[in-house]
Amino acid sequence: QGRGDRGACAAAAAQKREVSGGAAMAAAGRAVAGSAFRGVTAGATAATRGAAGSEIDWTNFNYPCSGEPCNLLHFDLAELRGKQGDAVFTVVRTVYAWFLLSFGVVCLNFLNSFILAVAIDSSVIYSGVNVVYGLFNFIIASVCGLFVVYNIYKGLAVPSPKAKRNGQAVMVVLLILSFIQMLMGAGNTNGFANFGTDRMALAEAADLGIVGYWKAMTVIESLLWMGAVGLGVFAFWRLHTF
After folding, report:
1. Residue partners of 13: CB distance under 8 A and separation at least 6
2. Which residues, including other chains, have CB under 8 Å from residue 91's CB and lie 6 or more apart?
3. What pTM was estimated for this model as a whole?
């Protein structure tokens, strides 16, 4: 009976050691799994922070202005320079300067269209519908121009090759339209070809007092569009080679 008791005690001790060993292995397994999970989580967090453009606050909608309803997107050149450095800042600033120049010419054209439509009382020479065309150009320049600026800004800040490509594609279309505006002399456009159009000849024949203004604005608009096209091509080249 003593030997039986000693055998039972030995078996119980062995079972206890086996349970303890299993618990230790389970604890070690849980520690390894926990360490691996923390490593994956840390990697995902780092990747998310990297994709956020060096922690740029994209939810801070501050452009075109900080107040509603005009706070449409996030755009801050000073923040970009601090987060990404001078190289990225310079490229984005060049694209932004192209946008401002192009948008300024569109605004000038819209104003000129209104003045000419009021001053020239003849739909044959200058139709009032040109004011509507000028408004369309204003909307297109606003929406598409902001699309380009924001996508280039985001494409270089994150970085996001897709956003950069989208901005470049729309920028090419706008550059082509700007080139047409620089040359064309019909509708609301006052390009270089405007001097050889029938409507300009009719205005001169009618001895309209607005002709001098119209010619001056044709020169100014054409030269401004030429500058916008040149700056846009330069900005696109810098963007493409960045």
Report:
1. none
2. 152, 156, 235, 238, 239, 242
3. 0.75
> Which ranges in the chain belong to alpha helices (H)?
2-51, 77-84, 86-119, 129-157, 161-183, 198-205, 211-240
| Token duo for residue 70 | 């005009």
**Measured between alpha carbons, how far is 164 from 167 in angstroms, rounded to an integer?**
5
For 167, counting Cβ atoms within 10 Å of its Cβ (0-12 exposed, 13-18 middle, 19+ buried), the class is: buried
Contact 169, 149 (CB under 8 A): no
The position carrying tokens 């300067």 is 97
Own/partner pairs, 173-180, CB within 8 angstroms, 24+ separation: 173/144, 174/102, 174/141, 174/144, 174/145, 174/148, 174/232, 175/229, 175/232, 175/233, 175/236, 177/140, 178/102, 178/225, 178/228, 178/229, 178/232, 179/225, 179/229
Question: Is the separation of the CB atoms in 97 and 235 below 8 Å?
Answer: yes
pLDDT digits (tens, 9 = 90+) for 186-235: 999 999 999 999 999 999 998 888 999 999 999 999 999 999 999 999 99
H or E segment and range at residue 72? strand 71-73
What residue has token string 């060993």?
21
CA atoms within 13 A on the CB side of 232: 27
Spatial contact of 112 and 217, defined as CB atoms under 8 Å apart: yes
